[in-house]
Write a structure and sequence with these properties.
The protein has five helices and nine strands. By secondary structure, it is of the alpha+beta class. It has a domain of 164 residues: OmpA-like domain (60s Ribosomal Protein L30, Chain: A). A five-stranded mixed sheet has the order 5-6-9-7-8, with helices on one face. The chain has a two-stranded antiparallel sheet with strand order 1-2. Strands 3-4 form a two-stranded antiparallel ribbon. Helix 4 crosses helix 5. The protein is elongated and about 140 Å long. The N and C termini lie far apart (143 Å). The C terminus is likely disordered.
Length: 310
Amino acid sequence: MAGPSIVVKKIKKGEHGHHGGAWKVAYADFVTAMMAFFLLLWLLSTSSEETLHGISDYFAPTTGVQGELGIGFKGGKAMGKEGTKEIAMAKPSITNGAAHTGPIVQAPEDQSQENEETEKQQLNLIENNISEALKKDRELKELMDSIIIDQTPEGLRIQITDKKNRPMFRYGGVTLYPHAKIMLAKITDIVRFVPNYLSINGHTTITNALRKGYTDWELSADRANVVRQFMQESGLDEEQVARVVGKADFEPLKPEEPNAPENDRISIILLRHSVLPYHRRAAPDGVFSKEGDNDEKPMEEPKVLIPEKK
């Protein structure tokens, strides 16, 4: 008699799909970020206060302040003959071109007034020096009636105006006459040594432009730009020019006479530091680095240099 049949049942198990590893990538990123964060905390805790000020100034540059020892650029200190010296920060104000980087701290009122008074005295000195230098120049003797120097809320303004039968530019164009080049060259020889940015503004009379589609806006802007180019060719550092503006027939010198030749003019403004965007309030580097000067040399007090007549 045959024995009982033994049936062996084998079950084949299917292969499971591969489990995703995206969580490992996310976890690795998290661990890396935490490591970098704690490394940053460690570096900050071991850094000196001066180093921390330097890092802070890298992201929010300090204002260059002009004083007895020159212009300060490094963390609120002025470099001069006597070494580094702490200087007072200017009163914060709302300016274009700089993002707010921290709480606004109100400066003492007397400090703000002192800074404004110092800047006013400096502009008065510059105005006197420029006026004297231009009056002593023999080549400008017959042209001084075209030059007007005054102070505005923006700064010290030098205006070169047209006169009857003596315009600066060819009518409706941007070509400078020889006498205009003489005046601009003399002015450039002085202002290029002044530690202030420049604004060059062009003004025209009504319907001065001749070509169709070419308005007084384009003409005044092109004339201002031609003046900028000529001044740079005459020795002005390109970094010293903060802006070039065309104002067409707006802001006439003689509002009661819209067609007066004096309304055609060029305004060269030595800008106050307070009207500049925060990141450009330090004096232009080109004024102090002519001929490749070493940046680490102590900076002398900026002076207006008056060219001598030979």
